[in-house]
Each structure stands twice: as C-alpha cells, then as structure tokens.
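Re: that backbone. Tokens:
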C-alpha cells in the first residue's frame, strides 16, 4: 500500500507503465525483424540450392559429352577414365587449398554482414 502511494505521489506509476510498454514494443519489433531476416535467409538458401542443382546437372551432362567425344578417338573406357581423372585432380587441388579457400569465403561473408549492418545503421 505504501509502495503504491509513493509511486502515485511521485508519478512513477505512469513512467513504469510507459517503460514496460516500450520494452514490450521493442521486443516485438526484434521478433519481427528476426522473422524477416529468417525468411530472407531461407529464400536465399532455396535459390542457391536450385542454382547448385542446375550447375550440377550442367557439369554432369558436359562431362558425359566430353567423355563421348573423347571416346571416338581414345576408346570408351579411356575417355571416361580421363574425365574421372580430371575431377579427381580438381578434388585434390581443392583439398590442398581448402583452408585458403575457406578463409577467403569467411572473409567475404564477414564483409557482407558488416556492409549490411552499416546500411541499416546498427
């Protein structure tokens, strides 16, 4: 009772209500921003997955085309072995330089995040 009387006397009751309302509104705004960011990330991942699938199919058919073209002059098994060897060498090169490639990608992502933060003013 004394607490309520003091709060009303110093007009702190309204201040506390306003502060509580402000915090609730701010929390709701953060939730909405997170939902918006999540939707943006999910849609970007979906588009990247579709692009990755199409690129995979492109490289698959190009590989078969190259193997069949080489098969005319080298024989079927040799042609497919050459194409497989090319992909094996590409894999070995990627394994050797994976840390360097990973660091460059990570740096690019961090720069992109910082740029987006600077754009939004946060």
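Recovered sequence:
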């Amino acid at each position: 009772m004394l607490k309520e009387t003091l709060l009303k006397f110093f007009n702190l009751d309204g201040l506390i209500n306003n502060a509580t309302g402000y915090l609730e509104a701010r929390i709701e705004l953060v939730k909405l921003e997170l939902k918006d960011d999540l939707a943006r990330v999910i849609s970007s991942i979906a588009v990247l997955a579709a692009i990755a699938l199409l690129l995979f199919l492109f490289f698959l058919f190009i590989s078969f085309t190259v193997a069949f073209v080489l098969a005319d002059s080298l024989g079927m098994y040799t042609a497919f072995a050459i194409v497989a060897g090319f992909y094996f060498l590409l894999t070995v090169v990627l394994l050797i330089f994976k840390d360097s490639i990973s660091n460059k990608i990570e740096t690019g992502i961090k720069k992109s995040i910082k740029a987006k933060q600077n754009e939004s003013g946060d």
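Residues 2-120 form one domain. The chain has a mean pLDDT of 85.
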